[in-house]
Amino acid sequence: WQALAIEDEAAEEALQRATVEAGHRDRRLQWAEVPHELASLISEDSNERHAAIAVARGVEGLGDPWDAWLGRLAAYRDRFGHVKVRFLSTIFGHTLGRWAREQRDIWKRGLLPSRKVARLKGMGFMLDLESEIFAQGLAELRKYVMFKRKRVVPLSYLTDDGFPLGQWVVEQRTKQRRNKLTPRQIELLREAYFLWRPAETPSLFFTHPEDPEAAAITRALEEELRRLRWQPVGERRRYFRSLVLKHHPDISESEHAGSTITFLAEVKDWFLAGS
């Protein structure tokens, strides 16, 4: 089964369907219940009982448990006529409500694979429209940062699926400035932006003085700069200017002013990059 699933996409999809069906029935499938796509992969000369056992082992050993839960959701829909699952709801003794809440949370964070999103939506299991768009944008932003290895998204950028990621990013920054993003949304955006951190590698950008007292100053600055890095560029520029004025040797009386200004000069491009 494992070899088939790896080499044959149709076999993988057939195994997914069988796993959903097993979850829907909450038991091993009898031979007559095995999806045709999967049954066709088994030799016609096989004993039906042995073939059913082989399918069950494939489902239990290689099937995605998520698909079994999807089958349970389908059973819930068949029984109650909807998929508005309350947190304490169960089916066949399984805590379906808890699972449903977990899926919505993962979905909102943009971490639910598109295949699973499509399967849930196909059953009528939805987020509210605004949350769904945010989740999609977050998922696309994660992919962009990971694969493009940069955080600046051009305004005109469209994903392969046609999602206007550049425009979406601008909208999120506008909402953030107007305090229309929740703390959780801000946290998720920050996490997405910092999936790739080459510009934050200490050996490249955060070289600190050898003097312990001077290093204590620059490390404190590093921590603050990291915290503010996601803020709009205008705010970052104002803050950086205030640091330069505060620590400039012509103004500061600190004996470490020179090394502090050198540190700020080295991290300026990183801190002010992006829009």
How many domains make up the 3D coordinates? 3
Number of strands: 0
- Rg of Cα set: 27 Å
SSE series: HHHHHHHHHHHHH
Q: Let me know the largest β-sheet.
A: none
Strand content: under 5%
- Mass-distribution shape: elongated
Output the structural class: mainly alpha
Terminal CA distance: 50 Å
Query: What is the tally of helical segments?
Result: 13
Low-confidence stretches: 1-7, 197-205
- Portion of residues within helices: 55-70%
Mean of all residue-level pLDDT scores:
86
Description:
InterPro entries: Helicase_assoc. This is Helicase-associated domain-containing protein. With 275 residues, the protein is an all-alpha fold. It contains 13 helices and no strands. α2 packs across α4 (48-62), α11 packs parallel to α13 (257-272) and α12 (233-247) packs antiparallel against α13 (257-272). The protein is elongated. The two termini are 50 Å apart.
